[in-house]
Write a sequence for this structure.
């Protein structure tokens, strides 16, 4: 007892010192993400200080230590006064966290029934009395579950929610919630716009960058439990003993936070590293090579998650190189990983050029015939839409067409086609559209969310991947607002039913401000941002009309890429008559890949949502839209509306000076200026180009372009 008191006194002092150091004006560089534990507004402090007085995390392990430290640091910071760690409940306001195994206090509560339903990662937070004191208990079956519970509890405080009568049970809806990094071993990041790779390969395994820990901690705070370290355009070197030592060092840092490592496996690695003459998946030597490699990996990283494979796509080797099928390839790797409980994430992003083919139908053609054939530890990773991470796409037809396959959506958090890290866009709105889309696979209500969370077909293994937008930039994502997309990805992976508004509001309060007016204004900006970006980039179902290669800025005229389907002209099909890609029965008919009610809905011009009009139809320039305007006028007004939104948003943001700290305010303002410049560029370049087909004047209300079409065509990335 005495010892406990002494310890808590020492802890108090240590925290007080820590706290004093932390509160010294820290530059507002965004590095702390949504885990800013600054003192909360006065109105919340009085009640929280009574409700939270000490932290009781018993037991010792890497995760329990992280959990204790997080609660102590966070509560001390948020409450503006030291909240000590204690070995027992000494007073009202104890926050007790752990598992029945780690904490006799939790065991004594006999919550077997409550915990039984939570699975390995869920948590239960309940206000109780413990030894006559009021306490908040965060309990879970695993230490990781308790850590997730702690982050949830902190989120409640960070967003000023009541914590007096807590009774919260949660578990993740999707099992594998992973960030995919397209990081190359030379430190560059494919489609990365926030600096270099976070993995300092040359310094590893000896030197561990503290950012690795920050990264893992940020992920744990939103429930992300997997990280693919290397680009799916893979370099086999990552599988060498040298690199595996480096990988193991990263895994050691991530482990306490529950983030498991995945690696992209280059299909031809047995030849490149093992000296075999073939990588044919049915060759026994090849199978043995992968088995041995898997064994070697698990020796170095016992909780290794598995392989991600981009096969026979965009020049990557794969089973088809040897006249074998995707299933042959995936199942061979799955057999190597199965003894270790590892999984294979096989990507469905496969599209071979054929005469007159429609890229939107390619993944379905390549993969759908294998429904029911993949091994039990294979997940088929399907991009949200059938082309490639466009500002807006209809949902991928595979979601409604593979009932016997474990499907896992792939979202792109990094903004390859969406203005890099220059444009403010909140992607939760876009992902909601995908989750909510009805595939009709098992009648109405068969939403993509229900397909991928396993509930529609009792899918045994579930998951979701987001291509990360993180990098070595101090603020992680290159633009302060784009941190919200990392956050939203984690939150929606945990619960795909959360509304975009809820996610936005949480994030704003945790990251920027508690001021109600400012929160409302920022939330509105975020919630409108996706539609606005679609308006100034690709309205009414247009897609892939970006500059070739880097995909930044408009270039609808582009037709010099070696593959037809890398050229914008392939996608918009503008001619004297009209605009859009006919994917109905009179065109490519890839619309037939959707279930009949979906197909009919999109095929019929009167029911097809205008947001997808030009995705599915080639429409005459003078086609009457629902507004009564003709297509050309409507198109032009969409572009103008997008520009107007950015202009208005800049003003609104300016008005928030004084509410938002000056450093982040100024940095966001600069990015908004670029966004406005780009939106105007998009409007002018695209309209001038399409005008050469429509031969119609710009409607009233649309500003005249400042340059000629030739000037826009000559423009390079840096204007
Ligand atoms: O979107 C395209 C990108 C490629 C990427 C590919 C993929 C990693 O332009 O850079 O390669 O998709 O998803 O495999």
């Amino acid at each position: 007892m005495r010892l406990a008191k002494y310890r808590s006194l020492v802890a108090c002092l240590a925290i007080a010192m820590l706290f004093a150091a932390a509160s010294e004006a820290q530059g507002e560089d965004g590095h702390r993400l949504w885990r800013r534990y600054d003192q909360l507004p006065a109105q919340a402090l009085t009640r929280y200080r009574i409700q939270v007085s000490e932290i009781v995390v018993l037991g010792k392990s890497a995760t329990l230590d992280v959990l204790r430290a997080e609660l102590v640091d966070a509560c001390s910071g948020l409450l503006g006064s030291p909240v000590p760690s204690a070995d027992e409940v000494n007073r009202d306001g104890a926050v007790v966290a752990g598992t029945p195994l780690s904490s006799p206090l939790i065991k004594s509560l006999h919550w077997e029934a409550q915990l039984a339903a939570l699975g390995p990662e869920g948590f239960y937070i309940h206000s109780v009395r413990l030894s006559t004191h009021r306490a908040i208990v965060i309990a879970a079956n695993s230490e990781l579950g308790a850590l997730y519970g702690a982050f949830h509890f902190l989120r409640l405080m960070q967003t000023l929610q009541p914590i007096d009568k807590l009774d919260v049970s949660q578990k993740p809806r999707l099992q594998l919630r992973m960030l995919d990094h397209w990081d190359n071993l030379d430190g560059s990041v494919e489609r990365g716009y926030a600096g270099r790779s976070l993995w300092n390969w040359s310094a590893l395994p000896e030197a561990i960058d503290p950012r690795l820990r920050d990264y893992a901690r940020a992920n744990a705070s939103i429930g992300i439990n997997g990280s693919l370290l290397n680009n799916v355009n893979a370099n086999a070197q990552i599988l060498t003993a040298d690199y595996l030592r480096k990988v193991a060092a990263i895994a050691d840092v991530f482990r306490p936070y529950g983030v498991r490592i995945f690696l992209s496996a280059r299909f031809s690695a047995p030849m490149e590293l093992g000296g075999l003459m073939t990588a044919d998946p049915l060759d026994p030597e090849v199978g043995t090579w992968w088995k041995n490699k898997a064994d070697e990996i698990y020796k170095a990283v016992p909780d290794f998650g598995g392989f991600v494979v981009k096969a026979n796509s965009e020049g990557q080797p794969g089973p088809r190189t040897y006249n074998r099928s995707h299933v042959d390839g995936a199942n061979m790797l799955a057999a190597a990983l199965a003894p270790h409980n590892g999984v294979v994430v096989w990507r469905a992003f496969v599209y071979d050029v054929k005469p007159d083919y429609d890229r939107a139908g390619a993944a379905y053609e390549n993969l759908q015939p294998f429904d029911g054939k993949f091994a039990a530890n294979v997940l088929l990773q399907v991009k949200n839409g059938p082309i490639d991470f466009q500002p807006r796409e209809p949902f991928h037809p595979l979601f409604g067409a593979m009932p016997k396959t474990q499907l896992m959506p792939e979202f792109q958090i990094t903004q390859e086609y969406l203005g890099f890290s220059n444009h403010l866009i909140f992607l939760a709105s876009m992902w909601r559209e995908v989750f909510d889309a009805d595939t009709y696979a098992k009648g109405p209500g068969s939403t993509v969310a229900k397909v991928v969370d396993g509930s529609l077909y009792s899918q045994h293994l579930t998951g979701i991947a987001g291509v990360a937008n993180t990098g070595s930039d101090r603020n992680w994502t290159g633009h302060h607002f784009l941190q919200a997309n990392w956050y939203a990805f984690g939150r929606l992976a945990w619960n795909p039913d959360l509304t975009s508004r809820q996610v936005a509001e949480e994030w704003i309060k945790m990251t920027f401000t508690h001021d109600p007016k400012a929160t409302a204004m920022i939330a509105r900006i975020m919630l409108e941002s996706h539609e606005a970006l679609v308006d100034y980039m690709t309205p009414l179902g247009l897609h892939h009309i970006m500059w070739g290669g880097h995909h930044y800025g408009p270039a609808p005229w582009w037709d010099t890429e070696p593959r037809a389907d890398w050229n914008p002209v392939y996608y918009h099909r503008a001619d004297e008559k009209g605009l859009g890609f006919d994917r109905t029965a009179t065109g490519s008919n890839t619309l037939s890949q959707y279930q009949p009610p979906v197909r009919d809905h999109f095929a019929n011009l009167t029911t097809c949502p205008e947001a997808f009009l030009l995705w599915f139809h080639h429409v005459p320039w003078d086609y009457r839209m629902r507004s009564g305007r003709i297509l050309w006028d409507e198109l032009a007004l969409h572009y103008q509306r997008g520009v107007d939104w950015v202009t208005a948003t800049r003003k609104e943001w300016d008005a928030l000076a004084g509410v938002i700290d000056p450093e982040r305010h100024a940095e966001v303002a600069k990015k908004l200026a670029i966004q406005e410049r780009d939106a105007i560029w998009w409007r002018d370049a695209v309209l001038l180009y399409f005008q050469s087909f429509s031969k119609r004047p710009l409607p009233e209300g649309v500003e005249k372009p400042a340059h000629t079409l030739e000037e826009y065509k000559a423009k390079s990335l840096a204007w």
Q: What stands out?
A: Confidence is low (pLDDT under 50) at residues 1-25. The pocket of 4-O-methyl-beta-D-glucopyranuronic acid is lined by residues 182, 190-191, 232-233, 310, 314, 349, 388-389, 416 (CB under 6 Å).
